[in-house]
Amino acid sequence: MEPITGRALVLAASAIGAGLAMIAGIGPGIGQGYAAGKGAEGVGRQPEAQGDIVRTMLLGAAVAETTGIYGLIVALILLFANPLIRLL
Amino acid sequence: MEPITGRALVLAASAIGAGLAMIAGIGPGIGQGYAAGKGAEGVGRQPEAQGDIVRTMLLGAAVAETTGIYGLIVALILLFANPLIRLL
Amino acid sequence: MEPITGRALVLAASAIGAGLAMIAGIGPGIGQGYAAGKGAEGVGRQPEAQGDIVRTMLLGAAVAETTGIYGLIVALILLFANPLIRLL
Amino acid sequence: MEPITGRALVLAASAIGAGLAMIAGIGPGIGQGYAAGKGAEGVGRQPEAQGDIVRTMLLGAAVAETTGIYGLIVALILLFANPLIRLL
Amino acid sequence: MEPITGRALVLAASAIGAGLAMIAGIGPGIGQGYAAGKGAEGVGRQPEAQGDIVRTMLLGAAVAETTGIYGLIVALILLFANPLIRLL
Amino acid sequence: MEPITGRALVLAASAIGAGLAMIAGIGPGIGQGYAAGKGAEGVGRQPEAQGDIVRTMLLGAAVAETTGIYGLIVALILLFANPLIRLL
Amino acid sequence: MEPITGRALVLAASAIGAGLAMIAGIGPGIGQGYAAGKGAEGVGRQPEAQGDIVRTMLLGAAVAETTGIYGLIVALILLFANPLIRLL
Amino acid sequence: MEPITGRALVLAASAIGAGLAMIAGIGPGIGQGYAAGKGAEGVGRQPEAQGDIVRTMLLGAAVAETTGIYGLIVALILLFANPLIRLL
Amino acid sequence: MEPITGRALVLAASAIGAGLAMIAGIGPGIGQGYAAGKGAEGVGRQPEAQGDIVRTMLLGAAVAETTGIYGLIVALILLFANPLIRLL
Amino acid sequence: MENTNFIMQFLEWLMSFDRKAVILAASAIGAGLAMIAGIGPGVGQGYAAGKGAEAVSYNPKSGRQATTVMLLGAAVAETSGILSLVIALILLFANPLVNLSGAAIVVSASAIGAGLSMIAGIGPGIGQGYAAGKGTEMVGKRPRLQSSIIRTMFLGQAVAQTTGIYAMIIALVLMFANPLIRLL
Ligand code: NA
Ligand code: NA
Ligand code: NA
Ligand code: NA
Ligand code: NA
Ligand code: NA
Ligand code: NA
Ligand code: NA
Ligand code: NA
Ligand code: NA
Questions:
Q1: Which superkingdom does the taxonomy of this entry point to (chains A, B, C, D, E, F, G, H, I) (predicted)?
Q2: Is I69 a domain residue?
Q3: In this predicted model, what pLDDT tens digit does every residue of H30-78 receive, in sequence order?
Q4: pLDDT by residue (tens digit) across E13-34?
């Protein structure tokens, strides 16, 4: 009969925290999709500038990805390298 | 009368964390839909550039998918390869 | 007065997790609707390109559906093939 | 039989707080994606101004990143330099 | 056997409050990203007005940052200068 | 052995209430960023009207700031001049 | 040993309710910022109509403020003139 | 030693319900601000139609206010004329 | 010492459910405000069509109101004609 | 036996109630959550209304036709709001969960899960309303192309409905064919 320990509580909260952190991914999804749409529009209008357009789109999308990555990193830390249970 | 164990608490929280992580999917859904609309608009205007437009749209949409995939991966980890219960 | 078992707690959390995962469906709904609007606009402007416009709209909408499907899959797993209760 | 301590409660709440703080990342993701789209559009229209466009886009995106970084910093403080447990 | 004290409860709530306060950062992220996109567009169209455009963009972005800073300050107060535990 | 008092519960809830109130800051951040973008666009198009444009932008942004300030005030009241604990 | 009373529970919930009510402030912040942007744009285009533009912008912004004020009033009632504790 | 009664639980939930109801105010704030921006734009373009524009803007804004008022009414009912405690 | 009854629990949850239902009001507020803005713009463009424009705006706004009304009805049912407590 | 564990204390407190009370309380919250879907149609139909007003101002002659398209498109955009209302009313007036056997906490969580699931309806509501607005705009501009514009609009709206349908299925499964209580 193993009761709920403090360790279990911290790990349970970590699972929820990891899920919450992933919600940040809404942002890059919307933003990069906007860039994709504008890129497709631009390529249709100026096919000769396709290289420049796609390169700018991808550069901007890379910048827009960062906060999604931050969320992923915090989630992976909570799941795989949980620093909180060491503080118990 | 089997009491709630710490293991059960962590697994319960993992179910909720997995659900939360999927919410990230809102972003790619909106963004890629925007790209789809812009792609359809562009193809209507420059049918001769259809190939370039659709390719750019799909490239941009692939980039916009990533944070949705991150959310899915975190959810699948919580469900199928839960690293937290090993820390109990 | 029936006591809560660990199994019940995990299943209860799975029901809530399934509900949360479906919220991802907001994204494809908005995005595909945007594509629908742009498609209707394009068909009105270039009726001769209707086939190309609708095909691009549907292709883009299919891409935008994925994260909604991910949410559905995670919900179905939680409801019908719950892997968490096997870990109890 | 180890009960849940106050320390465990604070650490569990810190895991959830860290997850919540990451949600700020939605903003920069959307905003920078918008900038990426506008940058790609601009480069297609005025290829000769590509340098200026991309530089302005990146400068503006850097400004838009800050609140995402604030969220990350608060999450990392909660995870790695938790000041609250020192107050117990 | 140290039970959960009122002090621990207040500190745990402070961790969650700090995380919630950071969510304000969504706003400046979106807004400043919009300004970045409009700035990049403007610089492409009127390169001769680049100085004025960028200066206006940064001035407006500074104004848009404030509520993100408010959220950060409230979070830092909760974490580092918690006034609530003095009221216990 | 100091148990959780009503005072502690109210103060804990105040920490969460303060965090929630800051979420209002999303609004001014988005709105003022929009104004910044429109201001930068306008200054690029009509440099001769820069003074009027910037003044109108700042006036409108000041109006848009108010609800963010309301949120901050409510949070500071909860943290520094908590009227609820006097009602206990 | 003072246990948690019903009075304390109501006051704690009032703190959270006050924080939730402030979230309404997102709306006026976005809306008035949009008006600010449109006002700045209009003033740049028709400087001769500046008086009319700004007056209409401010009138519309005043209308848009109301729901933010409602939220503030409900929060202040909960904090300073709590009618619920009288019903205990 | 006054324990938490059912009455206290209902009143506490009413405080939270009142706060939640106010969140509806986000909508009118955004919508009316959009109307304000469009009104200001229109007045700048057709100053001779100012009366008609402003009247239409205010009529539309009045319609947009209703759901914010509904939220306020439900909150005030919960706070000042709570029908639920009579059902206890 | 009167313990909390099941009736009280249901009524407390009804207060929260009523508050949640009102959040639907965000939608009509945004949508009708958009219609108000477009109506004002249209009236400025063709003042001679004012009657038709306003009538279409109001008709569309009436359609957009319904889900706000649904939310209000569900809230009022929970508050004034609670069918759940009859099932107890 | 005094339990010092606050999670166990809370769960024991919850289970001290009549099982029906816990399920009905969760149903009240689930009904409230389901209504949040109403944000979608509100935004979307309002967009259509604005586009309708705009179309009338551009082409007063085709105004009536554009208004008809606005109403058609907006009717489709109402779907998720109606579905959510139905789920909420079932939870309130014909609650299938209250007489379900099995652990009360699972049945209660199912009511909340059903409500959460319906929130997905925000998406189709906004998206279909946008399509309605664009359809209205184009029919106002090119009334002769009404049939192909409307057909494209409806096709796109149908595609945009799917995630709302998925959500309703999950809600109905949780309410009427709950697979979780079989696992107890
Ligand atoms: Na970024
Ligand atoms: Na991505
Ligand atoms: Na996708
Ligand atoms: Na920033
Ligand atoms: Na600001
Ligand atoms: Na304001
Ligand atoms: Na208002
Ligand atoms: Na309304
Ligand atoms: Na409606
Ligand atoms: Na779909």
A1: Bacteria
A2: yes
A3: 999 999 999 999 999 999 999 999 999 999 999 999 999 999 999 999 9
A4: 999 999 999 999 999 999 999 9
> Which residues of chain H make contact with J46, given a CB cutoff of 8 A?
31
CA dist A47 and I70 (Å) reads 50
The whole-number average pLDDT for the span I45-61 is 96
| Contact: chain G with chain D (3+ CB pairs below 8 Å) | no
DSSP string, A33-83: HHHHHHHHHHHHH-GGGHHHHHHHHHHHHHHHHHHHHHHHHHHHHHHHS-S
Residue A4 — very low, low, confident or very high, per pLDDT cuts 50/70/90?
Answer: confident
Structure tokens at F74: 């409510």
Q: What are the residue ranges of helices labelled H in chain J? A: 6-15, 19-35, 39-58, 63-77, 79-93, 104-118, 122-141, 146-176
Check residues D29 and J184 and name the one with the higher pLDDT.
D29
CATH number for position H57: 1.20.20.10
pLDDT band at J16 (very low <50, low <70, confident <90, very high): confident
Compute the distance between CA of residue B1 and CA of residue E56 in angstroms, rounded to an integer. 69
Cα J43 from Cα I78, distance rounded (Å): 25
Asked if the Cβ–Cβ distance from J8 to B4 is below 8 Å, we say: yes
Closest listed residue to residue B67, CA positions, set D25, F8, E18 = D25
State how far residue C51 is from chain J, nearest Cα, in angstroms: 10
Inside any domain, residue D2:
no
Flag if D68 and A68 touch (Cβ within 8 Å). no
Range of the domain at H41: 27-87
pTM: 0.97
pLDDT (0 to 100) of residue G1:
44
ipTM over 0.95: yes
Calpha distance J49→H35 (Å, rounded): 13
Where b means 16+ CB within 10 Å and e means fewer, B51-84 reads: ebbbebbbbbbebbbbbbbbbbebbbbbbeebbb
**Cα(I80)–Cα(I76) distance, integer angstroms:** 6
Report the domain count for chain H: 1
Give a yes or no: residue B10 inside a domain. no
D42: contact with F, CB 8 A cutoff: no
Question: What's the pLDDT score for residue J80?
Answer: 97
- Residue H9 inside a domain? The answer is no
Could you tell me the domains of chain J? 25-177 (1.20.120.610)
